[in-house]
Amino acid sequence: MDAVFTGVLDLYYAKMTTPDAANTAPVYGTPAVLGKGISVTITPQFAEGKLDASNRRIKWRKKITGYEIAMNADNLAPDVAKDILGRKIDATNKFQRINVDTVAPNIALGFCATYDDGTKEYWWIYHCNCEEITKEMATESSDGIEYQTPTINAVCVPRLDTGDLAAVADSNDSNIASSVLTGWFSAVPV
């Protein structure tokens, strides 16, 4: 395959509706669109161990422990921000409160990257917690319009029951049934 990434489509999320437990697979709610995708950056996090003996390195192990994710979207609807960040609604005036004690819920994050040959790579990252949104706002220029879009940052850890971090399916893989790809965003594949 000589295909190269050229884009990203809609971004999705699904709330984990059961606790992440060592003996039970998590259950997720129905996936919803987080926003239209502009960019996705997935940065793996690692643990590393080295053992030197007899004046030589005899063991060296590096394993993935999680991801840091940055998703840039066209916009983030207020209801979506409330859902993924755990914000509370003011009882009287109905605005959202950002509080130092707010805990973001456990969610799965999904997206589809596109290749230059028309094929796609599909992702679900299982156990993510989002940080408050990074926003940049600037004055309008008289030379043209410059759009400012939100960035959603998340820290993702492995599922307790399996140690899985993510599910990835590539449409170039002939072993994957087309029904798996067409239904990818209808439910989180556990």
Tell me what the structure shows:
Helix content is 7%, strand content 45%. Strands 1, 2, 3, 4, 7, 8, 9 and 10 form an 8-stranded antiparallel sheet that branches. The protein has a two-stranded antiparallel ribbon with strand order 5-6. The model has no long low-confidence stretch (mean pLDDT 94).
Mean pLDDT across every amino acid position: 94
Distance between the terminal alpha carbons, to the nearest Å? Answer: 28 Å
Number of extended strands: 10
- H/E series: EEEEHEEEEEEH
The percentage helix is under 10%
Q: Using the alpha-carbon principal axes, give the shape.
A: globular
Spans where pLDDT lies below 50 across 5 or more residues: none
By secondary-structure content and strand pairing, the structural class works out as mainly beta
Number of domains: 1
Total helical elements: 2
